[in-house]
Design brief:
With 142 residues, the protein is mainly alpha-helical. It has a domain of 98 residues. The chain contains 8 helices and 2 strands; from the N terminus they run αααααααββα. The chain has a two-stranded antiparallel ribbon. The radius of gyration is 20 Å and the shape is flat. The two termini are 38 Å apart.
Amino acid sequence: MTQFYSRSYKIEPKPDDNSAAQMDCWALVPNKVLNLMNKELTKTLAFGEIKVAIVAMPKGKTLGRDSLLMEFFQENSEDVAPTLLQAYRTMLELGNTSEFINKGLITLKPKSGDHSRLGNWPPITLLGSIYKILAKVLFQRL
């Protein structure tokens, strides 16, 4: 299995023969994030943002490494949102996250077709609920 997925997902280096063309192309792209927008995107997280993100999360998803159902957060949002807010603010201010939050669980998920073929079992990464909530908050800002 390791050999199969190592070959399937290997990134082959590509020659940089078109790097000048890419630079010319990117030079034509105007700045998309203005200073005012950047200020909004990087402002301190607020309690309301956490609550809105929790409510917006889909229910019934597969558990990640933290084994916490999103329904737990939704049913207890008033109690857990302040703790999450403090943790997220600390993580963003320090520029790093806990190893517990930052890791996913890689597993194989069957897709249609012959299940005896390894190619019909693509890997997926199951991320924890705490990570997903922060990602949702940041996504909503964008």
